[in-house]
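Sequence, structure tokens reproduced for reference:
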Amino acid sequence: MQIHGFNKLTLLDYPGHLAATLFLGGCNMRCPFCQNASLVLNPKAQPSIGEEEVLAVLSKRKNLIEGVCISGGEPTLYKELPELIRKIKALGLLVKLDTNGTNPVMIKALVREQLIDYIAMDIKNSKEKYAVTSGIADLDIRSVGESVSYLLGSNIPYEFRTTIVKEFHTTEDILSLGAWLKGAKSYYLQSFQDSEDIIEPGLSSHTKETLVGFVNLLRPFIEQVSLRGID
């Protein structure tokens, strides 16, 4: 288990809860707009934190925080993930999983064992442009589709979210996403923000006006649609 980041307190990563966040290295996508390029492209070169150290800190802070967000990279690449979550749950903490949805078998197993309390699944783009947006030319999105269908029919609290990038997302894509995610409980659009640790520099964001327009296009399809991280 490669833990390469540990935020001991966040008000943002787990909606409605004080939480800590763990960042696991490695990912099976190469999204050009990814802001954790170091974790994705060369995780072994990044400083790591031992699992026991993390658990010791969580144990000391379990009366201050309510939950733990497990992010990445892509956490479900690790077969050891369920055991780590069991140890976190044993501390009495809630667990939120951030995932790209490419491992529906693990997602279902975690839900079945009641190891996670909230799932945030990244939706990269419309089905037609999923491969190019994920940075994997031959990507088979059937596993992603399986995870989407599972969450749409599940009782676990979840959200879908998409980072909107001017070079990748058009009005047609937004309408296609609405049809795909129709009936979803919660969907967040996040405006692309440039950073020093991005896979493909030079990308840009849509205007706030355009993003608001995208939200309005999605509302007939989805129960709750919001912009996140926009003033």
About this structure: The longest strand covers residues 3-10.
